[in-house]
């Protein structure tokens, strides 16, 4: 019942250079996300950014096509996320989701889904609209996975994603949180804390291992220990808690 109440207030917008795709999405939205209201649909990356940042035209949920004529969907997500965390963003693509998933997550999206899979699109819309994150099943991996060649894509909430982007740029955070806050981070060892810091900046296990001259398995161990020590439900949740301090 809480989901229905939240969904009823969701203003949805989309950017896609395919006019027919926008019309189709607008028409099917009531079935995909019951109670949601279509706000606007545009084909221009720059117009989408302007509208998303304007309080008068800002949607609660923005669908971003990854392939645009005048810019990239990744660029749209990043430009919006660096300015606000009040817009949840769901990346959509006609290509294999693995093509854009990692970059969409790093840019600040809350999920990615294929345009062709209506069932998954409905699930993704409902999940992201109610404050969650969505990762297609084929991209996820159990946290105890021993396959060191594949890193799971991790989407995090809008506020944590914006904080990660700003910190990566070295900007000061003006929301009262201190970068060096010891409350949660004091539970982590120096190596665990460094692992979480690098993961929050979008580095993969392999990249972190190369930096520290350790094995990927060791990095995974630090990450999994951090999840436990921070009392998180997942690695993505642990990263969000770490960013909060």
UniProtKB/TrEMBL annotation:
InterPro entries xref list: CheY-like_superfamily, Sig_transdc_resp-reg_C-effctor, Sig_transdc_resp-reg_receiver, Tscrpt_reg_LuxR_C, WalR-like, WH-like_DNA-bd_sf
Domain Response regulatory: start-end pairs: 11-130
GO biological process: phosphorelay signal transduction system; regulation of DNA-templated transcription
Modified residues (4-aspartylphosphate): 65
GO molecular function: DNA binding
Transcription regulation among keywords: yes
Keywords: DNA-binding, Phosphoprotein, Transcription, Transcription regulation
Domain HTH luxR-type residue range list: 181-245
SUPFAM superfamilies: C-terminal effector domain of the bipartite response regulators, CheY-like
Name by which UniProt lists this protein: Two component transcriptional regulator, LuxR family
Lineage of the organism: Bacteria, Bacillati, Actinomycetota, Actinomycetes, Bifidobacteriales
